[in-house]
Write a structure and sequence with these properties.
The protein contains 15 helices and no strands. By secondary structure, it is an all-alpha fold. The two termini are 38 Å apart.
Length: 291
């Protein structure tokens, strides 16, 4: 009991049972996110767990893993639930921790709503060959919006920190898209932009696109865009609070080798996993931590 009170007092002013519940959502997802956030002070780590748990729950709804009969209606319920958080209305442990995090770190409601809207884009009919504007909107909602919430929790809510979120979110999401082309095709999804597919004569059918001759060129162009976003994110980080940007630097350092491995492999055989050096990723992540 004494240990429990000490943990709560060193972190967010929430009931320990609520904090434990939120952490269980994070750890149950099997993500490495929980380990990565251990570098944060207790209060910021707990707030990030709450943000991640929120993202996890709406993502599960969109992916059909939440067991709800009408996913789109469930996401609309989350819009109303977010509005309620800003009025102090809580329905469960996650809400109670989110309310504290929102007020302590001045998290903006639009960023939560953007995340929900991003998940709604994945709800229902699969995304197949979106146009450039739709792809960018998708990246902003599912990745950069999470970044906007995260940098505030990390300790920097400046315009430059929002630039970090803008560019790093897009860099990470484009890297994910380029890595998961074959996996997404298995779910009848194709996140590559229609303009590039047309330019290089790549079919807009997810399965037919996999081994199209022009897919390699499409992949290389998007990879360069991702690399440009990584570069702009690093430039913006240099204008931010260095300690606050440590988690963002570590995430960028961990993902950059994945992008490099993808570029080395190319997209002529997108179903073959790229060879990513685990020691290199760990070394670069460590270097980002001590920088």
């Amino acid at each position: 009991m004494v240990f429990s009170r000490m943990r709560a007092s060193s972190g967010l002013p929430c009931a320990q049972a609520d904090l434990d519940h939120v952490e269980r959502i994070v750890t149950a997802s099997g993500t490495s996110f929980a380990r990565g956030m251990r570098i944060l002070p207790a209060d910021r780590r707990q707030a990030m767990f709450a943000v991640y748990a929120f993202c996890r729950q709406v993502d599960d709804i969109a992916d059909g893993d939440a067991g709800v009969a009408d996913p789109m209606a469930a996401l609309q319920d989350w819009h109303r639930r977010v509005d309620g958080l800003y009025e102090g209305i809580a329905t469960d442990a996650l809400d109670r921790v989110l309310i504290v995090a929102i007020h302590r770190y001045q998290l903006q409601p639009q960023d939560f709503h953007d995340v929900i809207d991003g998940m709604a884009m994945d709800c229902g009919a699969p995304i197949v060959a979106p146009d450039e504007a739709t792809l960018d909107l998708y990246c902003d909602r599912v990745a950069s919006a999470v970044g906007r919430l995260s940098v505030c929790v990390f300790g920097d809510s400046s315009d430059n920190a929002r630039r970090v979120a803008y560019h790093l979110g897009r860099a990470l999401q484009l890297t994910n898209i380029l890595r998961d082309i074959a996996e997404d095709a298995g779910r009848d999804r194709l996140y590559l932009p229609s303009e590039l597919l047309t330019r290089f004569d790549v079919p807009k059918n997810p399965h037919e696109a996999l081994y199209a001759h022009g897919l390699d060129q499409v992949g290389r162009i998007l990879a360069q865009r991702a690399r440009d976003h990584f570069r702009e994110a690093r430039k913006a980080m240099q204008l931010c609070d260095s300690t606050a940007m440590r988690p963002a630097r570590m995430m960028a350092a961990s993902y950059a080798p994945i992008l490099s491995a993808l570029q080395k492999r190319g997209w002529k055989t997108p179903d073959i996993a790229p060879k990513v050096s685990k020691p290199l990723r760990q070394l670069r992540t460590l270097a980002a931590y001590v920088k």
